[in-house]
Amino acid sequence: MHARSFIMPLLFAFYAALWVVVPAAGAKPGADAHPAEEGVSALEIFRALPSTIFENTLEGLSEDEKERLLSYGQSAFWILLPPGQDDLELVSLPFGDTRVFLHVYRERNGSSLAIIGANSDDVCSLELWHVREAFFSPADTPPEPPVTDFFAKGNKMPKDVQASIFFCVDAQGLKARAVFWNERGMAHVPVDNDLRYVWNGKNFEKKIVAKVKK
């Protein structure tokens, strides 16, 4: 047995041992449940959201499997790490190749904004939802940043290269990512900056952070 395939199940078993599900008061686990009050937890929002984000993952997530995750914290293809009030993370089994993050941001008007995203290797997908009592509505991503934001002053991408900008979610929250290509396919273009998005209670503010040089 490879070391990787031996260690990862032990790690997931450890997290599963920590898992305790506390259902929302009066809420029935499953796709038909809805968060009832402002300040609703990330777990309750995950319970109510559709599983469409998982259509972009290799593992997928059926409604039966989602109910098992909510009840036990683990299913055939996923483990739900012990969640916080505003954050949760799912890891694919058995090797953790795909991770799904959900973050909840509180708005000043009493609503919430939920972002849920899947990351697998160099691919990411994202959904944003406004949450108000029992109602969910799609939300827009922030404006797409110019590709120049990824480069320090005086640096630019090669002339024969084009870029696409994607929004992704990781453990820290929302970020933008540039993917580069040319006529031969994907191109490796080192960038100077990370683009993070910080919640101010109303919307996301872009923050350009210089990468640490190795």
Secondary structure layout:
Blueprint lengths: L2 H16 L23 H7 L14 H10 L5 E3 L6 E6 L5 E9 L5 E9 L2 E10 L2 E4 L23 E9 L2 E10 L2 E2 L6 E7 L4 E7 L4
Antiparallel strand pairs: 1-2, 2-3, 3-4, 4-5, 5-6, 7-8, 8-9, 8-10, 10-11
Task: Tell me what the structure shows.
It is built from three helices and eleven strands, in the order H-H-H-E-E-E-E-E-E-E-E-E-E-E. The model is unreliable at 1-38 (pLDDT under 50). The relative contact order is 0.12. With 214 residues, the protein is α+β, with helices and mostly antiparallel strands. A hairpin with a 2-residue loop joins strand 7 (162-170) and strand 8. It is globular. The chain has helices at 3-18, 42-48, 63-72, and strands spanning 78-80, 87-92, 98-106, 112-120, 123-132, 135-138, 162-170, 173-182, 185-186, 193-199, 204-210. Helices cover 15% and strands 36% of the residues. Strands 1-2-3-4-5-6 form a six-stranded antiparallel beta sheet, sandwiched between helices.
Question: How would a crystallographer describe the biggest sheet?
Answer: 6 strands, antiparallel
Radius of gyration: 19 Å
Range of helix content: 10-25%
Residue share in β-strands: 35-45%
Structural class: alpha+beta
- Total of DSSP H or I helical runs spanning 4+ residues: 3
Low-confidence stretches: 1-38
Shape: globular
Write down the secondary-structure element order. Answer: HHHEEEEEEEEEEE
Give the overall average pLDDT.
83
Read across the widest sheet, the strand sequence of neighbours is: 1-2-3-4-5-6
Q: Write down how many β-strands occur, each being a DSSP E stretch of 2 or more residues.
A: 11
